[in-house]
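Researcher: We are triaging several targets before committing to wet-lab work. For this one, the compound of interest is S-adenosylmethionine. I'm pasting the protein sequence and the ligand SMILES. What I need is the predicted three-dimensional arrangement of the protein with the ligand bound, expressed as structure tokens, so it can go straight into our comparison scripts without reformatting.
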Amino acid sequence: MNHHSSALHPKSSQDRLGRFLASWRVDYVRRRVEPPVLDVACGDNRLAEYFADATGVDVVDYGAGAIIVEHLDSLTFPSDYFATVTVIASLNYFSQPERVLAECARVLRPKGKLLVTQTRPALAAVWHKVREPWAKVGSYSRSDILTMCDETGLRLVSSHSFMFGMNRLFVFQSRQ
Ligand SMILES: C[S@@+](CC[C@H](N)C(=O)[O-])C[C@H]1O[C@@H](n2cnc3c(N)ncnc32)[C@H](O)[C@@H]1O
């Protein structure tokens, strides 16, 4: 366990608005989850509350029972294990997002689903300046995410707008 991670990575906003938006997006994503599920950069681990077989992992300890690691791109979970992996509102914080996505692909079982959400880039550009300027980029676009997944064997099967168009969910399927 790395107790220095919160110093290295600032905590994402946990105020009233932050918690409200987190509940909204997690509630949307959870309906598409089949356990066992791994929630990568799980924050306060709220997705895990909905499933008996759920694991949250993060680099910052929010005190919610997640596994805390130094890097999200080299996890100790076995390959081909999870039916679903989620990366909710987090890709834009990672220094090497393509490496984290490759790790998600590794731990997914064949035909498993990777669910990635990102705020719409135009909105995120403003939002992150105000709320969380340490985020690496405001948000990644669909084509950015597709490029990152190029060599992972993940295939985009659908994408959905939600939260009145503010947010997008990308559903990938792992190799057969
Ligand atoms: C906006 S929060 C989203 C949390 C949760 N998935 C949710 O939807 O509520 C972004 C997450 O990215 C994590 N994070 C921040 N900086 C990071 C970094 N450099 N590398 C990996 N994860 C990071 C934070 O700890 C936080 O849990």
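Researcher: Any quick observations?
Model: The mean pLDDT is 93.
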